[in-house]
Amino acid sequence: MRIVGKNIARFFAKPEQSLLVDVIKLNNRNKNISLDKARDVIDGKLLEPKLAELGTTSVQIERKLKEQFPAAKKEIENIFLNLNSVAGISARPKGSVSIITKLEREFLHGAPIKSFDDAYKIVRDGIGDRILLKPLPELSSKEIKKMLQEFKLDGRELSKKEMQILEKYVYNHPMSKDEMRMGFPIFEKFSRPLIEKQTQQAVDYISLGIIKDRMNKGLSIAEIKEKGLLSEELLQKLQTEDIKPINFSLINNYRGEFGLPTFTNGQLQQIERAAGGNITIISRPDVLDFDKYPKEYLDKMKKCIRQSGYRTCQGNIVHQNGANGECQFRDIFTNNFAEYEHIAYDLRMGKNTLGPLFDDYKKEISKLSDAKYEKYTEYLQQCYNYYNRKSLGLPAKKPSLPKGFNKILSEDNMKKLHDANELRLKDLGKNFTQHFEDVA
Q: What does each of the 440 residues of the chain score in pLDDT, given as a tens digit?
């Protein structure tokens, strides 16, 4: 192999996915980093030799994550896999191509990367875990009727108009935007018991894991009781079960404007109490509670609202072996849709790592004006809400692609493209080995 440009070569980490690296430095396990934004960036882009330096570091981080992965995966499985509400867990270490994308973006935005440790800390989602939650049984018409009859809004009976709009929401009848804005805050509170029924067990073991981690650092049972960090029921579990520690530092409770959260704010308060306030939680309060919060707080919480309706509760954790990880909680229906929903967003943001099967889809997305793209993301949000409703056992009607959009942009077609591409990549990977190629 001929190495050009001061030892720079292209490293293929996966089929069709490559990055520049310094081969000599990589082979010698040299982890020194030398970056200076003032000298290494032209027209907003990192110069090729320095890009190779980040590429080398990215491969080194990937290798470290792969070494840490088995123990980190086992840690999460020990906490969540045997819970009755959990359908399964998927986990994987982040690849070098994704890592360099993150490092380059952060460096260009001013993050100091002067050492391997600096770079490693930036990759907070180095090991990705997804805890997939089981759907609730489908509610019967009798059960829904009873829930509506017994529902009170913050302790009071609903007015006739409020009940009419809530029934529209619950039964998934067509509504105008004004009706949605009026009805959603009520529907959000109506749905809270269903959300908590699906996710409470996971929330309880997050709380227990956080407490166990704090106990390993000196917190006593007496302090837990004195400060009321756990309910009596969870305190009993702590003292009788083999609780495993978990170290959360940040939780983002993502959802769309008219989407329900994965964890309710009451559940997040439970987690925050267990953490003793030593955790950052980003979650929009229930809409009806907005007047309780200052504007600057609500502006900060807007970070968790996603235009496409993207829905998950995810937390940054530090595994017991030091690995940085991201732990996501999703119901299985939402998770399946999320596997391919992000395609449109990635393309809109300039990420072009998709294979040739997506060429026609790319062309259609690129043609959309900002106004049409906004309408398209409303459709994606409706799809997220559809799968969420199914997961909670509520009546659900699958949304149709709005008129005027090419059918290639439909959710059904996105799934077909994603599934076909997964098979294609699997076939390409059968005889693939990581390798270097000359830089042209």
A: 445 567 899 999 988 889 999 999 999 999 999 898 888 999 889 999 899 999 999 999 999 999 999 999 999 999 999 999 999 999 999 999 999 999 999 999 999 999 999 999 999 999 999 999 999 999 999 999 999 999 999 999 999 999 999 999 999 999 998 999 999 999 999 999 999 999 999 999 999 999 999 999 999 999 999 999 999 999 999 999 999 999 999 999 999 999 999 999 999 999 999 999 899 999 999 888 888 899 899 998 999 999 999 999 999 999 999 999 999 999 999 999 998 888 877 776 666 567 788 889 988 988 899 999 999 999 999 999 999 999 999 999 999 999 999 999 999 999 999 999 999 999 999 999 999 988 86
**Among the three residues 276, 308, 334, which one is the final residue of a domain in this structure?**
334
Q: Is the dihedral of CA 158, 164, 169, 172 positive or negative?
A: positive
Same domain as 355, residue 244: no
Sheet with 435-437, edge to edge strand ranges = 17-22, 8-14, 435-437
Residues 345 and 380 in one domain: yes
Asked if residue 197 lies in contact with residue 84, where contact means CB atoms within 8 angstroms, the answer is: no
Residues 248 and 316 in one domain: yes
Same-domain status, 172 and 289? yes
Q: Work out the number of other CB atoms within 10 angstroms of the CB of residue 146.
A: 12
Q: Domains in the chain: how many in total? A: 3
Q: What is the span of the domain harbouring residue 424?
A: 340-430
